[in-house]
Amino acid sequence: MAWSGSINWDSEHESTFRSTQGNLERASQSIARSTQIAVETEQIGTEVVSELGQQRETLLRARQRVADTDEELNRADAILRKMKCGVLSNKLTLLLIILMEGGILACLVYLKFFKKS
User: Fold this and answer.
1) Domain parsing of the chain, residue ranges
2) What are the UniProt keywords, alphabetically (predicted)?
């Protein structure tokens, strides 16, 4: 059974072709925008990775400085402990000398004023 309607097949094909062509152009534009966004995203990602690398280096240097400072503080603490022991030793020596001088002075006063010869 042949269909013999009033449909103009050429105009229908042309309409479908134009619609499809419009869809393809929109899809191409969408792909171009997506590609541009992907390129921009890649550039941003590269910049972020570079910046993170720089920050990592900065943190590693800071960590090393902290370790060096800690080592220096440990050395300073050891020096201060030695100095503290030296000061304590000097005080004890001075106290012993003062006691000896006091004893000698007491002996001299006793011999000079209290001993009857």
Assistant:
1) 11-87
2) Coiled coil, Membrane, Protein transport, Transmembrane, Transmembrane helix, Transport
